[in-house]
Amino acid sequence: MSKVIITAAITGSIHVPSMSPYLPITPQQIADEAVRVYEAGGAVAHIHVRNPETGQPSSDMELFREVVTKVKSRCNIVLCLSTGGGVGMTTAERVKGVTTFKPELASFNFGSINFGLFPIAEAVRKFKFPWEKPYLQGTEDFIFANTFKTLREFSQAFEENETKPELEIYDAGMINNVAFMLQRGYLKKPVYLQFVLGILGSMPASPSNLLYLFNSAREQIGDFVWSVCAAGRHQMPMCTMSLVMGGNARVGMEDSLYAGKGVLAKSNADQVEKIVRIARELSLEPATPDEARQILGLKGLNKVNW
Ligand code: KMH
Ligand code: ZN
């Protein structure tokens, strides 16, 4: 039976605590969620951290340390640390998780976009914390900068720490960036691409856009391993399309707070269970973390720095 990698992005830096009481905030909650994802059939947990008091996205390495050590003591799920971070973080802060922890896998955003979260603010009736509204509204004027210099510097950090990059592709031009960095020797094949659909400021989530990204990547890069994530209500349809097309799938509360129409997910595991059910209906079996390590060519949990 074909194996598919199910990733869950546990908390992210897009949603704010006022939007769901179930959004994991503290290191303990994030670690508990990663373990629940593992138990539900997830092979990878994508990790951001938040200030435990306010829920604001953070780049504090001690918060990351608490999460990764707690998870490792309980299960062998692959941890994919974020280098996307959150609004307002510097590139130096964002890459620190790679140089500090030498993870097996980390996200690597492959171009710049005006990451527009500001419409989300309109949907929140009452904000719990003072940082939330300006954080979202400020993105009207926020460039999520991943310049060629950053791509070069991050590539070197990934290579030095033997961390496999998960290349986040929000837009067609970013495939060109991957081809360029491959040609210059900054990336090695096979690359792992994740098509990110439905973020305002980049490509909308639609079947034709996913097909277009996939075909463009085939033309420009050749063979690659790939996955899909999509924002909000597009999460399950786009992940299902990825599975049908032979790709992998990322769910999780970073991308959607819902487990169904109008139903908040109580845990990331709700979404993992759902995509696992869909996969099995398609005669696909979720990969274990060790199978995911093999598919992605990861160095192994014994080589991380925690
Ligand atoms: N925020 C996402 C839509 C990252 O953390 O580096 C993609 C992501 C990026 O997860
Ligand atoms: Zn992320």
Question: If you had to describe this structure to a student in words, what would you say it looks like?
Answer:
With 306 residues, this protein is α/β, with parallel strands linked by helices. The chain has a single domain, classed as Alpha-Beta Barrel (TIM Barrel). Helices cover 40% and strands 19% of the residues. The strands form five sheets. It has an eight-stranded parallel beta barrel, surrounded by eight helices. The chain has a two-stranded parallel sheet with strand order 1-16. Strand 12, helix 9 and strand 13 form a beta-alpha-beta unit. Helix 1 packs parallel to helix 2 and helix 3 packs parallel to helix 6. The longest helix has 15 residues. The site of (5S)-5-amino-3-OXO-hexanoic acid has 12 residues, from strand 7. Zinc ion binds next to loops.
What topology does this entry show?
Blueprint (H helix, E strand, L loop, with lengths): L1 E3 L1 E4 L17 H14 L3 E4 L1 E2 L6 E2 L2 H12 L5 E4 L9 H11 L3 E5 L3 E2 L3 H6 L8 H6 L5 E2 L3 H13 L3 E6 L3 H11 L8 E6 L9 H15 L3 E6 L4 H11 L2 E4 L6 E3 L2 E2 L3 H14 L2 E3 L2 H8 L10
Parallel strand pairs: 1-16, 2-3, 2-13, 3-6, 6-7, 7-10, 10-11, 11-12, 12-13
Antiparallel strand pairs: 4-5, 8-9, 14-15
Helix pairs in contact: 1-2, 1-10, 3-6, 7-8, 9-10
